[in-house]
Model the fold of this input.
Amino acid sequence: MGNMKKANYIISVIMLLIGVGIVALASSLKIKLGEGDPGAGFWPMMLGVLIIVFSVCLLFSTIKNKEKLEAKTFTIATPANIRVYILFGIIILFCLILYFLGFYVGALLFIPAVMYLLEVRSVKKIVLTTVITLAAIYVLFGMLLNITLPAPIFMR
Done:
């Protein structure tokens, strides 16, 4: 258990650093305001700025309400929280697999893993959902929109 004041300070600093990192990375992408297409850097920049703004808001709110927050406690290791941490780990693995093995292999592993975590135990449902989802993505993006999704690193 810990108190909310300390947790809010830690989270606000971590998220502030993440926001600054996103803004720094997004600054290398083009932003074209007023030309219809805002450019590839617009939304990442907006996301980074919003993360910074909300981090600062959390920091000021914590400073303002520090007595109330010091009395509040929370537990990190509840069963519901542990499932969230596992899902976060699965998402990170998906990102790594996406980079090295491509979208389709990543999604082929990601969808069943998330379904199992969400307590879907029917193999038939898991297989059908995975196959239908991947087929729909392939038809929509690959065939109709002619968009190539990330390929495995050895095929680039």
